[in-house]
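Journal club prep — side note

Before the paper discussion, L.F. wants everyone to see what a predicted structure for a comparable chain looks like in token form. Sequence:
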Amino acid sequence: MSDMTSTATSDPEHLRILEALLFAATEPLDEGTLAARLPAGADVAQALTSLRQQYQGRGVELVPVAGGWRFQTAEDLSHVLIEERVVQKKLSQAALETLAIIAYHQPVTRAEIEHVRGVSISKGVLDTLLEINWVRIRGRRQSPGRPVTFGVTDQFLAHFGLQSLADLPGFHELKAMGLMEARVEDLPDLKKMPLFDGPEDEDTGGEPEFMTDYAAAEAEPTS
């Protein structure tokens, strides 16, 4: 049986070779693979035991895994290796169109968004906009089924450098800014769409942030 407390019987050169092989490997190496790289007659098992002993208690340790051996960071140091990154994710064309419709027509329901776009929207599109906090639930429409209505957030305004919804650009400006791409012409002209009116039962704790529909600012009020 190998002595875990001593490295005296292991050839220092064999340990150096093992160390280099294991550091360079992208996956665990078994004893057969290691033996093929060591001089003939080398005691691979003893050398691994010795090398493991040398690394015990250090930031990197030699551990057996998946039938082989590899170096990995010590488990008790995992908390200092956590890294949080902000990943920039490009919105899909459907998400950009949906966001524009919400911004220009809020408060607006899912059915109303689909009416403007002319196609149904997947649940994932709205989920993405809610997740990045550019869209929020405004309340419920006081109509059959009491559908949820959506509006944009202050974070949306901040991201696009807008003081208020009154500063929203037209679609040609959006396209020039790269926010709407080739299919922008496929969308109806929102500024010519009728106002989606109807009383709302706000359940978001007070008055909504935005009440004016700037896309229909010139439309006649409905009775």
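L.F.'s comment for the group: Residues 12-75 form a domain with the Arc Repressor Mutant, subunit A fold (CATH 1.10.10.10). Keep this in mind when we get to the figures.
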